[in-house]
Amino acid sequence: MTVVTTLSSAFDPRNNSIGFLRWLMAFMVIFSHAGPVAGIFGAVDIGAQWGAETSLGGVAVTGFFFLSGMLITRSMMRSRSPFRYLWHRVVRIYPAWFFILVVTAFVLAPLAWVHSQGSIRGFSSYPFDSPWTYVYNNFTLVLNQWAIAGTGAQTHAVQVGYNTWNGSAWTLMYEFFCYLGVLVLGIIGALRGRIIGAVVAGLVIMLSTFQTLHVGDLAGALQTLSNPQVLQLAAPFAFGTLVQLYIEKVPFDDRLGIAMLAIAALCWWRGGWFLFGQYAFSYGLIWFGTRVKALSGWDRHADLSYGIYIAGWPVMFLAAEYGLASFAGGFWYLLIVIVVVHVYAYASYMLFEKPALDLKNWMPRWLARMRGLPAVAPGGGGGTGILVRARFVPLILLLVVTVGLIIVGAVRTWA
Q1: Other Cβ atoms closer than 10 A to 370
Q2: pLDDT tens profile 215-252
């Protein structure tokens, strides 16, 4: 009798290469976007050259959403409470997001302004798309302001219609909405019972298939679906949820993993990505992440993937404003961008993301007394007393600055 190995028995949440895959996919996004931002790779996203249904960055985003669907569903199923689950999501997403908003508006955009105008004069008083409203308009993850004071007007990105300081960040809103969807499923017990959760996930995948095949009028039935990107992002996330719900029934086989990656590559090249390719790629991704344990320590010291993802476009945009690709060439342009985003992502993680993650299971004394539970100190120690508190200072300052800019932005918007 042949014993079938399942993903449940093979996958080790503490010993896998998912951290490496996230890092790699973040750079897939950067390399893909370098085309329209800097005018290299034929001035288009990698993949568009041969008429692919999605770009290299789109492939990476599919991977991000699938892994999130699987791991976030797992998190909700094991969470002590819906509030704790939501708190975990907030501390992972928002501190790094606040930081890139502040850095973009008050470091990168001013540098672009000085390059084009010769001095900083007039930047802070620009009449529309002000740096003072940038944080306020975008802090929720819903992007309501893309440009800042007309900066970057001469870049290739703006000239071809990408008038934005962060063309990668649009996916964050959809990802967080998916988190909230999992939260709702968890609250109503649809994940514990699995059947309802599986039906919901299957319905999302079915609607995505209908959209790809142009079956029915989905936009007419539901206004939200008038944007095809909604289902294009929700479907791999739902597939990840489905895989996690029935993880003990998902076969784990090397031949299957390699075959699925080959099918995904073929679909990306020749067509059928949204019908078959993205699901084959998702299985191949979790197969690789589970099988290749040699890369399990990739993000042990610092998880840079999120910082790289949200900083890649702003750094490339500034480099394009300075014409780096034109006078140094595409190779040096990308190399400098890679180095800068690594430095940025490391600083973001150590100063803000890691301290925030240390608060994941924190329960202050007043809340513990109210709930009749023992207080839980912040995790990730590294000292006692003042040394413990000191590591939270940059995070606290960031929150204070962000709140202040939100207030200033609100006043300027509504005055």
Answers
A1: 9
A2: 888 877 777 888 889 999 999 999 999 999 999 999 99
